[in-house]
């Protein structure tokens, strides 16, 4: 699924789901799913063997092993995947709306470009930037709360 760029899915999504939110959601899902899964998988795989062995020797198994070892150990990579997915989602959302949408910031950008209205283009771009920065900041706050042991890491 990843060798196909997410934006290449837009025409098919429009044919399948029309110009409503469903097509945008599908394309955003395609863009965001792979980075999150790959980074989460990598995070679990990178947990050091001695850590797993020590937990198992102490009798930690099943869901307790997942909750106390696997999730905390893989959280840095999970949040890396979430940051990448968030960035890909915003990029894909604007592109999907530019190509085919009845409303949204991308369609405002498209209409302003057709009307040769640079002030509106700049306003829409600033709105996209503020939304992207806000969601990135919010994710940084969630990350800081989820991993209090990483005190040196400043929430973005």
What Rg, in angstroms, do the CA atoms define?
20 Å
CATH class: Mainly Alpha
Most strands sheet: none
Per CATH, which architecture?
Orthogonal Bundle
- Helix/strand class: mainly alpha
Unreliably modeled segments:
none
In short:
It is built from six helices and no strands. The protein has helices spanning 10-17, 21-45, 49-57, 63-99, 105-114, 118-146.
Structural write-up:
- This protein has one domain: MetI-like fold (Orthogonal Bundle).
- The model has no long low-confidence stretch (mean pLDDT 87).
- The protein has helices spanning 10-17, 21-45, 49-57, 63-99, 105-114, 118-146.
- It has 156 residues and is an all-alpha fold.
- It contains six helices and no strands.
- Helix 1 crosses helix 2 (21-45) and helix 2 packs antiparallel against helix 4.
Write the layout of secondary structure elements.
Layout: H1 10-17, H2 21-45, H3 49-57, H4 63-99, H5 105-114, H6 118-146
Helix pairs in contact: 1-2, 2-4, 4-5, 4-6, 5-6
Which terms would index this structure?
156 residues; mainly alpha; MetI-like fold
